[in-house]
Design brief:
2 domains, 5-stranded mixed sheet, binds magnesium ion, 6 helices, binds adenosine-5'-triphosphate, about 15% strand, about 270 residues, about 45% helix, 7 strands, Heat Shock Protein 90, two-stranded antiparallel sheet
Length: about 270
């Protein structure tokens, strides 16, 4: 009907406005970085060039993540299930995020159960689902460890405060672990020691564009990860962190996802 049609258009307009806003911010970041590089080149100031490049590089990552998240969300697609080692995907993500973690003084590690059987999953999809959680965990734990310095909080577009974090009251930590049992299937836990998520917010954070990171967050990461897990017949669970601090995001990949006859389920074990 006309009403539904106009509501849909309104929702679409809202989505486009939100996305444009984020793209604009990222472009501003790139412009700022480029400006630094240009000025640095003119005056032979390698430090300025390096700093400028850091900003450009980070914003490049942001825009590429934004586009990948948008793509994941925009199409209804069947995951391309391939038999592979989940640990491998986790290792890739951890390696990819290691430099970002170091920059923010976050200890990023992994506890992988090497005896888990091969799983059937969409490799790009799972990579993205895990990456979004690890990115959030790094953000959260580093925000916690650096919480005495609220100087550049929010809207500056670039996140400075990378070097002067020696006086951490607490080491920021993110750990990714894998495990398997025949009943629940594969489990990937992403645990951090950040501020955690209040009980009443644990559903809300999975809504699109729900973000507490000011201009730095789009609020697509969790809904995208959740969608990917749903497409796998799995889910994301939010659990209390270890030792009463932080939070754990658990990805659950069930055993019975493939159009699996008993034979192919059996196949996984041999
Ligand atoms: N590990 C975590 N600890 C504490 N809060 C979290 C954690 N992960 C997510 N959140 C909260 O949930 C919100 C939504 O997360 P989500 O990944 O969907 O969006 P975002 O990180 O803000 O932006 P984007 O991922 O699109 O860049 C975050 O803004 C944050 O407030
Ligand atoms: Mg996120």
């Amino acid at each position: 009907s006309a009403l539904v049609q106009s509501e849909r258009l309104a929702a679409m307009g809202q989505t486009i406005a939100t996305l444009s806003h984020h793209v604009k911010n990222i472009l501003q970041g790139i412009r700022g970085g480029s400006y630094l590089i240009e000025a640095g080149l003119k005056s032979d100031d390698t430090d300025a060039v390096r700093k400028g490049w850091g900003i450009v590089d980070r914003n490049q990552d942001r825009i590429s993540n934004l586009v990948m998240d948008m793509l994941t969300f925009s199409k209804e697609r069947e995951p391309e299930l391939v038999k592979a080692d989940l640990n491998e995907t986790v290792r890739d993500v951890v390696e990819l995020m290691q430099s970002r973690a170091k920059e923010l003084n976050v200890l990023l590690g992994q506890h992988l159960d090497e005896s888990i059987p091969e799983a059937k999953f969409d490799q790009d999809g799972m990579h993205r689902a895990i990456l979004n959680l690890v990115t959030n965990a790094i953000d959260a734990s580093s925000a916690m460890a650096n919480r005495d310095d609220h100087s550049g909080d929010g809207d500056s577009g670039d996140d400075s405060a990378s070097e002067d974090t020696e006086s951490n009251p607490q080491q920021a930590k993110v750990f990714v672990s894998t495990s398997y049992d025949a009943l629940d299937g594969w489990i990937i836990d992403v645990v951090d020691n950040g501020p955690g998520v209040a009980e009443e917010d644990r559903d809300k954070i999975f809504s699109m564009f729900e973000s507490r990171k000011g201009m730095r967050g789009t609020g697509l990461g969790l809904p995208v990860s959740a969608k990917i897990m749903r497409e796998h017949g799995g889910a994301i669970e939010v659990r209390d962190g270890e030792h009463g601090s932080g939070i754990c995001f658990r990805l659950k990949l069930p055993t019975g996802i493939s159009p699996s006859s008993d034979l192919s389920a059996f196949d996984t074990f041999v």
